[in-house]
Write a structure and sequence with these properties.
118 residues, alpha+beta, Alpha-Beta Plaits, four-stranded antiparallel sheet, 6 strands, elongated
Length: 118
């Protein structure tokens, strides 16, 4: 039986973006154009600020799209900014974004890629 090893990646961050339904495609395109490789999209329902924003005349849908992307530290700021602008998060009620530094990431990495970075 072949020996199994775990290769850990470090210096990575996860960008999480919670958006109004229908905005994820534009945000994903922006992230991919900046070099992000993949994403996980899930769906949820928001609560809390909806009632307060409604008082300001802004309609907020409770259905949300949640995008999670893991990027290298060198890509992180560039991808974060592109996603923020594509999602129009500077507009009230569009969504929220945050970035978390990751201690370790493990996944399959092809042998030729490992040899290039060794």
């Amino acid at each position: 039986m072949a020996e199994r090893n775990i290769t850990y990646l470090s210096e990575a961050s996860m960008i999480t973006c919670v958006l109004q339904t229908g905005l994820a495609e534009a945000v994903l395109d922006a992230a991919h154009n900046c070099g992000a490789q993949g994403a996980t999209i899930s769906y949820g329902r928001g609560t809390g600020i909806r009632e307060r924003m409604g008082l300001m005349g802004v309609t907020i849908d409770e259905q949300k799209e949640v995008i999670r992307i893991i990027v290298s530290e060198e890509q992180a700021d560039r991808v974060f900014e592109a996603m923020y602008l594509a999602g129009k998060l500077d507009t009230p009620g569009k969504g929220i974004m945050f970035m978390t530094k990751l201690d370790r990431v493990a996944t399959f990495i092809p042998e030729d890629v490992l040899q290039k970075i060794a």
